[in-house]
Every structure is written in C-alpha cells, then in structure tokens.
Amino acid sequence: MDKKQQGQFCWLELTTADWQQAKSFYCDLFNWRADDADIGDGMYCTKMYSNDKIVAAMFQRMPEQEEQGVMTNWLTYIAVDNVDDTLALAEPLGATVIAGPHNVMDAGRMAILQEPNSAVFAIWQANQHTGIEVRDVEGALCWSELATLNREDSKAFYHQVLGWEFDDKEMMGITYTELQVGEHQEGGMLEMTEEWGDTPPHWMNYFAVDGCEKMANKAQELGAIICVPPTDIPEVGRFSVINDPQGATFSIIELLTPVG
Predict the structure, then answer these.
(1) Phi and psi based region of residue 163 (left: phi greater than 0; alpha: psi -120 to 50; beta: remaining)
(2) Which DSSP string corresponds to 112-173?
(3) Is residue 260 predicted with pLDDT exceeding 70?
(4) Which range in 85-99, 174-188, 191-205, 245-259 is most confidently predicted, on average pLDDT?
(5) What is the pTM of this model?
(6) Cβ contact 107:150 at 8 Å
C-alpha cells in the first residue's frame, strides 16, 4: 500500500505498559516479527511485520502517560491530506485535540482527537511514512469499527471532517452503517445500547485470521481474555473480541470470503 487516500485507515499503534510482554503476545498470536528502533532515552518504537510487510507498531508507555493514567490501548490512525486543515474542520464541530499537531521527524504530521461522542482516534499526514504496508490479508487489519452513542451525529461529523459516505444496513437485529472512501468499504459503525453498560465509545480494529475458534483459543492460552466468544455474522464470517493480557481490546475475524 502506497500513500493512503484521505479517510483511509492507515496505521495502528499499541501503547503498552509492558512492551516486551506485548511483543511476545502478538508475535506468538499472529506470527508477527518485531523490529525495534531506538528513539532515545531508553525508549523504542517497534514495528510489527507480517510476511515482511508492516502491519502495526507498539511503544512502551511513556512516564508522563503513566502519570496521566493512560492504559494499554490500540490507537487507530486515519489518513488526511492536511492535519491542520482537518483540525480546523473538526474543532468547531466539537472535537477536542488531545495531542499535537506536531511533526514526527520526517515521517509525517499527526494529531490525536477526541470526537464529539468521545471516541479517540489519530490523524496522519504522510511524508516519508505512509503507514501499514498491507491490509485485508491474514494477520493484518481488515476492518475498523466505531461504537458510538449517536450514529447520526457520528455520521455527520465524519462526513464533514473526512468526507466519508455511508450505507445503512439491517444486520443481526441492529442498524449497521458501513463507511466508504471512494469505491472501497473501509469500516463501519454501530450505535451502542444499554447492554454496553459503562463501555465508552471507541474505535475497534479487526485482524483477519484463518480460523476464528482456533485463534481465540490460542489468544486465551497466551493470557488474553475473550470478551465476545467466536460468533457468526450472517453472510460475513465469524468474529471474536479479545482483551490482550494487558487489557488492550481488538477483534479477530474469519471472513467467509478468504483473505490473502
């Protein structure tokens, strides 16, 4: 994958309380390879490879993040043509800038936002680093999904800020919204109900797997907690929601139409 189009999901980043443990878990689970880069002060950026293609990155939580109570979590990045122009659209609509905007050396420019319904995501204006090198194959990102308190509000916000188009479908007794960038379905969103309890709005990343049951069992053996056991989605596939050993949440999905 070369430079991403505005609105495409372009990067995944795990901030973790125990960097070495997280590397071990994800390498064992997905057969990823870790490549550590020294970024100074005893800290490292670790790029994760699947079949020699970059699929994600992870960091040890910074001391200041620990003081702020930042938990182990996956952060979803969305490509934009211009970070500052995007913020100029997002802030008047109620978004809050959590970090940035700032340049990441010559890699690109970024900011982290909390949108009006409180889900957190990052935006990325690529320079030398365009993001993940592959998606929609086994062991890589294949879908990103927003759980929101108000689907219509979220649709309006993301359409105005990122230009997304939407297609509502009835699925498993709920209205599910697919989001589209150009001709490509990039992800989806659904509205949270009382059954979600105190779970805050959030972005969820799905990794493609060959055998949902097998991979969920493997994750559990490696110390993960299965939040949603392997479950069928009619005409789509079988998925499971997982908390890794440090509490970061992600999903796996075995699609009916094989990937890769």
Answers:
(1) left
(2) EEE-TT--EEEEEEESS----S--SSTTSEEEEEEEES-HHHHHHHHHHHH--EEEEEEETT
(3) no
(4) 85-99
(5) 0.93
(6) no
